[in-house]
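Researcher: Can you fold this with nicotinamide-adenine-dinucleotide in place?
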Amino acid sequence: MANNLLKGKRGIIFGALDENSIAWKTALKVKEEGGVFTLTNAPIAMRLGKINELAKECNAEVIPADATSEADLANLFTKSMEVLGGKIDFVLHSIGMSPNIRKEKPYGDLNYEWFQKTLDISALSFHKVLQTAEKLDALNEWASVLALSYIAAQRSYPDYTDMAQAKAMLESIARSYGARYAKLKKVRVNTISQSPTRTTAGSGISGFDVFFDFADMMSPLGNASAEDCAAYITVMFSDFTRMVTMQNLMHDGGFSSSGITEDIVERLSK
Ligand SMILES: NC(=O)c1ccc[n+]([C@@H]2O[C@H](COP(=O)([O-])OP(=O)(O)OC[C@H]3O[C@@H](n4cnc5c(N)ncnc54)[C@H](O)[C@@H]3O)[C@@H](O)[C@H]2O)c1
């Protein structure tokens, strides 16, 4: 059921790789709610992914950008404003990658060059997006900028290695830039901390199936799906959440507030 929540709003959606991506589901939901947007991803991901299929379905233009490149980001914002016919009202940063996780490096044997890449791609890129937008004065008042995080920013997860530090930095950037942008232009900046979700990035973490099932049992509502996340993002882009900023918003079926659940007790009593 569509409610035209985003009618008249223009945006940029980063990170749709394939139909499982949270950004992919978000694009479909935002379109359903009347928003218009450009789609972007790293040039390499474009070749591997299926973003053009999504672009067709959403009637959206694709503008490649490596989110670690300030030049690419400047081009992305400038072109998006041209294509969409005005300043931007919403941005989704749905980007994460750790070469250490990809190459299965344990936490006691991290490659530091790769660690810096993890931070650059998964966290610093969020600052670059915000700083580029500010320098180009690309955002309208009350624009909503979101990035996706994970509870490993607050708690230890052995196989999440350096991504845990990246998520902690990402959430910190949302607070610091949120304070700045609110004063400058009433722009709000938040992160959404999402349940484990079966996507390319998610499933790349070793032991993913186990912590997916564990989180599901530890969440009274069960794990939040990518579709649920897309719906929450859409509401956060809308005018119904105008006073929410500088927050890390838990979207996890109750996981983060649970001590133990009946499902876990039952499982461990067997
Ligand atoms: N899947 C999960 O379990 C889960 C849980 C919580 C948070 N998240 C976060 O959600 C976000 C989206 O991930 P997803 O699960 O949809 O997986 P995904 O693999 O579909 O999306 C990750 C995207 O990051 C893009 N990317 C990587 N390097 C980039 C670069 N240099 N420039 C631009 N884009 C780049 C990839 O091309 C891909 O589209 C990530 O921030 C991820 O950490 C995922």
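Model: Folded with nicotinamide-adenine-dinucleotide in place. The CA atoms of residues 7 and 34 lie 4 Å apart.
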